[in-house]
# Entry
Amino acid sequence: MTEVRKDLDDKKSRRFSDVAGMALAVEGTAAVGLTKAMPVSYPYLYGDPAAPPWELNQVKGAAGENLMDRVVTNQFFSETGGWVSCPPRSGPQGLDGLYVRANSQGQLRPPLVVESKYGSSGLSQTAAGRQMSEGWIRPRMAGPAQTYRTLTWGKDATVVRHSYVPEDVEAAPVPLSNSERAYVWREDSGVYHVHAPEGRSVGEVRVQTRQTADMLSGTAAGKVDYRARLFRYRVTDGEHEIVLQSLSSDGTVVTGPGGEQVQRVIRGSAEELPGPFRKALRLAFKRALVEKGNLPRFAARRLAKHAVENPEFADRMGLTPRGDGYVSIIGGIISGTKVGIAGGLTAGAVAAIQEAFRDGEFDFGRVGTTAAVGAASATLAYASGAAIHYGLVSTEVGSQIAGMMPTDQIAGQSVERVLGTVGGSMVGSTAFVVGMYLAGDYTPRESRRLMGRSLVRVLATKGATATAMGGAAALGTASTGTAISSLSGAAAQSATLAWWGGGSLASGGLGMAGGAAALTGIGAVIGVVAFAGTGYYFKRRDEAEQKATIEARLDLVEERVAKGEQPEWQ
# Structure
């Protein structure tokens, strides 16, 4: 009886290992992944100049917009500098750049609308008319106008002044006189927050916020003029070229008396570009590689420097020459190591807890084996997820597969990234089961079942996280008071994470880090419930099969007794 009881205890312990060990070890991978460890941008990992140069349009487009913002807000051209960048987007088809500026008396000048283009791409024809035409621009002013209207507080409102703008809030800049600016954001509770330069009063910020809202509303209604510009970055004959063109009300480039286009152009190699332009270009690429390419900062910094020094690389952006490819490989190894350590420590800790509460001697060998399998499976999850992500975004076949999906984004993340994460988790879970089977912990039948249960757990975990993020994006509001559903890209994801964190750090919430932890917890809990639920289903099915077998044997015994035969007990 003692041996039977020990065997039952081992099976119960093993079931606990199934749920806790697998869920926590592999979900530890997801936790690290939410802090940008998985996946790194793998189009840069497999640098091979002989391979087809699949372009990463999102990275290049973001680099162009970042560069545009730096050029317009700084004194690079005679008509730029001193402009304040407003939150322009009212969705993915919003304005690339919307800028306002106040004179020395604080009076606002007509807004500046800028469209950014990378390479040779042109302005498109839409249902509202030609892109950057008056009929296309004015309706898109209503969203930013409403943002500033929401941020204009009444006399009885609670206003908190800050000495800085927290990183996890979406603050709207407000133009002040003498090229200065303030920042305003709002909590869902109705509390307003202000950061303003020393010597500037909260009342002055309120007046300027209201004036900005009025001006943008007037522009949307056709009562206030605006200026339109087309900003273009491209590589021409191996040189960087930055062009700023004036646009007419129909969206075409303004021409001079001789038919020449009215534009400002700066062109040259890295050595020939003025220092401020060279720095702006490098920072623009670095930010795009971090935000859109998901690269570690040190790798983005190296690649951005390479893009500035080698314009042809910037134009092809998507493949790393062999000489610099090691930068991203090192980044991938570092991130993969972090994931493996997290998975191994978690699995080993769970196994140690099991051994501590189990009768008999503490099995250090089993703890070590579980930790090793957990580390290997977590690292494999990371690598396979990265390979899937790479294949989807950087190969023609992968692009076709991704194009078959009904949507290009899931809960604010690209479908390629989501599929890579899900696929990696499935591979990691399977590897964990196979590893523990080879270690003698699981029978073949248990292993097959655990693989199926792992699939259910992964889908439930990712589905719960996506649903939670999608719900917040549909119903929540950012710290500016703007609905998250009207945001896009990194702004939407940051606002969603902060919403799940209970608000920004400045408002007393846990910010984006708290939101990431909350979403990880939600996904892990749902995954464990799904995993345990499928285990309960198999348990009940086994009990039913065992009961049916016993009943069949009893029926056979009764039949033999009725015939006067001597039953044989087995």
User: Anything to note?
Assistant: Residues 1-55, 318-329 have pLDDT under 50 and may be disordered.
